[in-house]
Amino acid sequence: MQALLSYDQSPPLGAPLRFFLTAPLFGILAGLLLLWSGPEALAARWTPAALALTHLITAGFMLQVMLGALMQILPVLLGANMANPMRVASVVHAEITLGALFLVAAFLSFSPWLFKLAALFSGLGVACFVGSAALALHGIASTNPTTQGLKLALLGLSVTLVLGMLLAVSLGWSLNLPLMLLADIHLGWGFVAWGVVLLAAVGYVVVPMFQLTPAYPGWFARYFSFSALAVLVLWTIAEFNQWVFVSAMLGTALVALVVLFAGVTLSIQRRSKRPRFDATQHLWQFAMLSALAACAVWLAARTFPLFDGWTGWPVLCGVLLLFGGFMSVIVGMLYKIVPFLVWLHLQNLGQGRVMAPNMKKIIAEREMNRQMLAHFASCALLLLAVWWPLWFVYPAGLALLVASGGLLRNLLSALSVHREHRLKIESLICADDLPLT
Question: Which of 19, 188, 311, 401 could form a disulfide with 64 if both were Cys (CB 3.0 to 4.6 A apart)?
Answer without folding.
Answer: 19
